[in-house]
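If you are new to this repository, start here. Below is one unmodified record pulled from the training split, so you can see the exact layout before writing a loader.
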Amino acid sequence: MAGKWQTNVYEDDKKVGSSVGERKWAPGKYCLQFSTSLEINGEKFEGTGISGWTRKGRAIVEHWYASNGASLTVRYPLNKMKGNVWEGTHHLVNADGTERKGPCKLEKGNDEWTYTSEWEQDGKTLSRKSVSRKVQE
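And here is the target side for that same chain:
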């Protein structure tokens, strides 16, 4: 997981953005720290996150915060982490206060990860997919 990554972002299979970021272990390797530069739907912003294990919740939890005011929490319960596919939930709060909540999935391959999230909006199920490729250790 640690290293430099490039990501393409899609909403309902249409490319809407990209990012370049780095994931690194905190000293002691008790959590991963993330930093990324994004451009989505023409808006440029920075994101910072942290990922770690919560014993009580028995889950991997990621918390992200963006320079545009958005925040994201992703939870992957241990019992939903099967091999290279982790299923979980996400909760995004956009800068304008609107929210997206629903299921998500992380599919891991050789130096490529695909994250997919879904949410309901105006009676429709919408999705966002991020395809990340490792470009440097």
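Two things worth knowing about this chain: The longest strand covers residues 124-136. The CA atoms of residues 8 and 17 lie 6 Å apart.
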